Amino acid sequence: AHLILKEYNHTACDPSRPEGCVRCSPTRPSVCCDLDSPSQFMSLDPPIPPALPKNPARSHVDTKYTMEAKEVDLCNALEEWRVAKAVNERGEACVMDYGPGFILPTATIDRIVNCAHHSKLRTVDDLRKETRWSGVALYGTEVLAIVNIFIPQQTNTPALVRAPLLPRPVLQPCVQSTDLLPAPASTSGTKKNKCSACGLPGHNSTVFSLSMEFSLLTVIRT
Fold first, then answer.
1. Contact 153, 122 (CB under 8 A)
2. Cα 217 vs. chain centroid, distance in angstroms?
């Protein structure tokens, strides 16, 4: 049997109302669209996530150095630690299928060894800054303890202490007064020449002798 649908007319129920029956007539929306009423749709917008703080800049470490026995032992110890930790956390089957890198990646091990060689891993915060390893919060203390066994980090370096600056002396203004100037030397006490031949002041015996010789020559010539 076929069901014959008649055309629906909402005005047939109540011909006295131009908009049709109150119960059957379709309701008009109070808001048209987001273009006409954008403020009505603001609650439907997805929330904007807050901006994450930037990671602190990592130190530049020289990787072109010759690894010694302590760096090799540290690398082997970290690899053994991550295997044991991965087996303890997820089981041997998971480690066989996916490896232990989900606990501590190989690139992170290389970064730890390089930073430990240059004494950059003194605290857990240093380990977080230098490696940006997501497992620092859970395993940072254990890894840092392994690092200090093979390459002890210098943590007891005394900090530089700045001595306080001494205040500058306040200079007194210059006093321009004649009272502070030394008195001129008196000329009254200056010793005058005194002739030893005639006893008169103002000349010496040499001048007196020359004058006497000149007088005698004058008398002889005359």
1. yes
2. 102
